[in-house]
Amino acid sequence: MIDWLRGASARRVESPEIDLGGKPVPIVLKRLHNARRLTLRLAPDGSEVRITLPAWAEGREAIAFAHARAGWLAEQLAKLPRRAAPEPGGEVRYRGRTLQLEWDARAPRRPVLAGEALRIGGPQTGLETRLQRWLEAEALRLAEADMRDYCAAAGLDPVPIGLTRAQRRWGSCSDKSRIRINWRLVQAPDFVRRSVVAHEVAHLVHFDHSPAFHALLARIFEGQIQAADRWLKEHGRSLYAAFG
Questions:
Q1: Whole domain around residue 156: which residue ranges?
Q2: pLDDT in tens, 108-149
Q3: Which residues touch 25 (CB under 8 Å, ≥6 apart)?
Q4: Are 105 and 88 in contact (CB under 8 A)?
Q5: Does 97 share its domain with 218?
Q6: Based on the domain organization, do 144 and 115 belong to the same domain?
Q7: For the segment 149-189, what is each residue's pLDDT rounded down to a tens digit?
């Protein structure tokens, strides 16, 4: 789901735990005043079980529901990609490509693209941090260009755009006309990242998911929204595997 809790008023009610294959995982309840039913899902990185419930629902019933689905949740947790920190000779995902990570302590610390490789220098200590900072800078550069494209297509002036490290959303649009994009999208193919930016730009005009919103999104986005959504549903969790 791309817009988890979009526009909803929510408050945390309690944080019990559930055992999933021998691993204790927190259960986070969010009471949504506009929710009509209870929903259950695992965080993209497996760090918590999330339950949204209507204002009238009992928290203990939601927790019992999670325990009743413990087997299914454990299966979902087992499917998550294992954490694999970047290391010399390993791989880095960038704009849908898999790059070979070439490290040389004598080379510049700032990563440099070289064909199908990403070269980086400096001490091995802090390598992951330097890589993430470079990817975040690339994510912002690309998202800013995307935003300008779609604002122009929608007849809007450019708006401020920033990055988020959120675990629950790929993008968001505030009522202050500011867009935020999950930096991890820089690892995904361009059409996926651009679909999220286009989605948020459309929200600058229609702060809902009405037919008018979808019509505007279809007009300004050059690709197939369904294909981008499907990619995120099938591969989105893998974007959390390389960096903590």
A1: 91-240
A2: 999 999 999 999 999 999 999 999 999 999 999 999 999 999
A3: 17, 18, 19, 46, 47, 48, 49, 73, 77
A4: no
A5: yes
A6: yes
A7: 999 999 999 999 999 988 778 999 987 789 999 999 999 99
- If asked whether residues 21 and 95 sit together in one domain, one would say no
Rounded alpha-carbon distances, angstroms, from residue 115 to 2, 98, 99, 110, 187: 32, 11, 8, 16, 16
- Cβ(197)–Cβ(178) under 8 Å? no
SS3 of residue 13 by DSSP: coil
Residue with token string 């980086």: 120
Provide the residue type at 88 as one letter.
P
| Residue 180 CA: distances (Å) to CA of 2, 109, 149, 165 | 13, 28, 16, 10
Q: What interhelical angle do 190-205 and 127-154 show, nearest 10?
A: 50
- Please say whether the beta carbons of 199 and 216 come within 8 A: no
Rounded Cα distance, 143 and 199, in Å: 12
Q: Which residues contact 94 (CB under 8 A, 6 or more apart)?
A: 113, 118, 135, 138, 186, 187
For residues 48 and 140, state if they share a domain.
no
Residues 182 and 116 in one domain: yes
- pTM flag (> 0.85): no
- Identity of the amino acid at 59: G
User: 119 and 213 in one domain?
Assistant: yes
* Residue bearing tokens 């079980």: 49
Strand order in the sheet with 112-114: 91-94, 97-103, 117-120, 112-114
| Residue for token pair 């990817």 | 135
